[in-house]
Amino acid sequence: MVLRLQEVFIYPVVVINYIEVEFMKYLVKGEYLQMLNIDTLHNPYPSRRMTVYAKNGMVATSQPLAAEAGLAVLRKGGNAIDAAIAAAVCLTVVEPTSNGIGGDAFALVWSKGQLYGLNASGPAPQLLTLQALEKAGYQEMPAYGWFPVTVPGAPAAWAELSSRFGKLPLTETMAPAITYAQQGFPISPTVGRNWEIAFQRYAQDLKEEQYQNWFKTFAPQGRTPKIGEIWSSADHARTLQSIAETQAHSFYCGAIADQIDHFSQRYGGFLRKEDLAAYKPEWVTPISINYRGYEVWEIPPNGHGLVALLALNILKGFDFGIKESADSYHRQIEALKLAFADGKKYIADPSRMTLRIEDLLSDGYAMERRKLIGEKALQPEPGNPHKGGTVYLAAADSEGNMVSFIQSNYLDFGSGLVVPGTGICLHNRGNNFSLDPSHANCLEPGKKPYHTIIPGFLTKGHLPIGPFGVMGAFMQPQGHVQVIMNTLDYHLNPQASLDAPRWQWINGKTVEIEHAFSNQVAEELIRRGHDIRWSVNTAGFGRGQIIWRNKEGILVGGTEPRADGHIAMW
């Protein structure tokens, strides 16, 4: 059978898996998009979106209104950092199912020839101790209520990024979000579905008085807003206006801090105004490995971008041919399992880590781990990855600035606790603390937990290629590995890298795969000892964004097909 090139792109992915190897080699060698100094980037996957191009600026997010908010700020004279802040703050309003004012944030910022890292995750309150959990009868950290609430870092991240790199005041960059909160906006499809799922769970599990403000804020009519229905929140608008006017001072030291403190004390919580006042986000040195001649960058622990780098460091010792092969997927899965085994053991607040990052990322250690990968599935000893709620966005401008930004409340809306009169749903990042006193990630007052949200960045020869990320708790490093390999090993363009069917290691030998995954490859993985499970829930496989800058300086972007993804550009 001979297929004309234009026909390949309308065939289902399963058909593509059976095209002759020589034809696939031809496809890879074709001339569709020369960039990144690799042969070519293409898209063999059916998609409702196309890779997009722009010269002056680009903002990619999981929600269209947020992306357009970032673009509006660019058009006003703001830079990529201003645009990222605008989009991030807007997402707390238009996608509250995944992030909020009371969450954490991380960022990688390329500016004037240098990559900067911002860790805006918060520590445990000083009053939160192991003894308090033991007294309450807990043997592991709960998901809801006051125990998993740590100091929120997102508002401090917005103010810090604006102060150091922004061109516009926060009152301008945050204006679109404030307007949407005041005047309302129509609920987008993915947000609407996730909102309803969260509501059903909260209605069943969160019946105590302390949770009632969540229902008053996010289900004021006794139900969630329907897809396309207008939703607004005056409380969100007032809080965001106050943060914008005070450079977040009111959140950490002023009236909002007082409201948080009062709410916490009223219901036996541990977070106090003193914890908020003592908080400062940290500028950190990003960590990286060289993969196929490119530098892949992540935020250092307490984030688990280290897991992605550990896996890629193992994988760079293999030669990969055809993407849709059992060998390729088997090695990726095994490398991620080994990386997670190390990550779950060693990642913690950096002041408590027992091994140096450079030792974990050494070529010698990668070689040792690589030798463990054989023909059959391994049985590692990690924790149990689970799904979470996060938003990721990427932004770039004509000045050369590029931003990889991620923020989250964790596990949908977070702790289920909404501070009365503020719209602030406090996150539950402390859920990732261990209660084992011998573990590096064990809960301590003032200590940051193992953190799942990670922004990524790619460079080559001291030049920026661009930001990338795949949100979704323990899927995130797995998504980063798959996106990087799709780009550098399989030469897929940004949209194709996101469109490609994904897999997710869960625990033990269990791997979930998307419905579009090759049956032939899945059957071979089963024969190799993997417990393969098909999933119809695409949300569990993460949601990503990518912006690359090519050799000509043109911005090239892709957005997530598993969400309400959108790229705004000019």
TrEMBL record:
Sample GO molecular function, one term: transferase activity
Top-level division of the source organism's lineage: Bacteria
Keyword Transferase: yes
Record's keyword annotation contains Transferase: yes
Pfam family of the protein (one): G_glu_transpept
Keyword terms of this UniProt record: Transferase
Name of the featured protein: Gamma-glutamyltransferase
